[in-house]
Amino acid sequence: MQGSKRTLITLLISISLTASPELISLHNQGKIISSTNSKEILVREIETFVVEINGISCEGCANRIKAQFDSKPFVIDSKVYFKNQSAIVSVKSGTYNSNDIETWVKMVDFKYGAKVIQQYIKTVEEE
Ligand SMILES: *[C@@H]1O[C@H](CO)[C@@H](O)[C@H](O)[C@H]1NC(C)=O
């Protein structure tokens, strides 16, 4: 009796331990969106910047620039392309301007030349 109870508790603990890293990683990927505000805001605006970046010399360099974008709190998504030396950065509308984006690239390495060549706002409806 005593033994099986302990086994059950151990099992429950190990289940919760294995489940949480997954939850954390889902959260990091932005798949779980905090539900505290979503009931009030049914529509949100996403601002997208298309950036031309000169001087990306490797795939890893592109990833470092992407990591820099993703570290900003209001960046929703970013992609950096080594192939055509450009990036696409989506942010919560009204939080950043093109100068911010260009500065972030310079902060990774001053050798990069960054220029926002396109900027648009998209409205996304939430469920
Ligand atoms: C670079 O390539 C990607 C994917 O191939 C594309 O989505 C993006 O628009 C391109 N960038 C520019 C500036 O054309």
UniProtKB/TrEMBL annotation:
Please give the InterPro entries that the UniProt record associates with this protein: HMA_dom, HMA_dom_sf
CDD domains of this UniProt entry?
A: HMA (cd00371)
Ranges of residues in domain HMA: 50-92
Q: Does the keyword Signal apply?
A: yes
Q: What is this protein called?
A: 1906_t:CDS:1
Cite the source lineage: Eukaryota, Fungi, Fungi incertae sedis, Mucoromycota, Glomeromycotina
Species name: Funneliformis caledonium
Q: Where is the signal peptide?
A: 1-21
Named from the GO MF annotations, one term is:
metal ion binding
Q: Domain of life, per the record?
A: Eukaryota
Q: Which UniProt keywords apply?
A: Signal
Sorted alphabetically, which Pfam families does this protein's record hold?
A: HMA
| Keyword Mitochondrion tagged | no
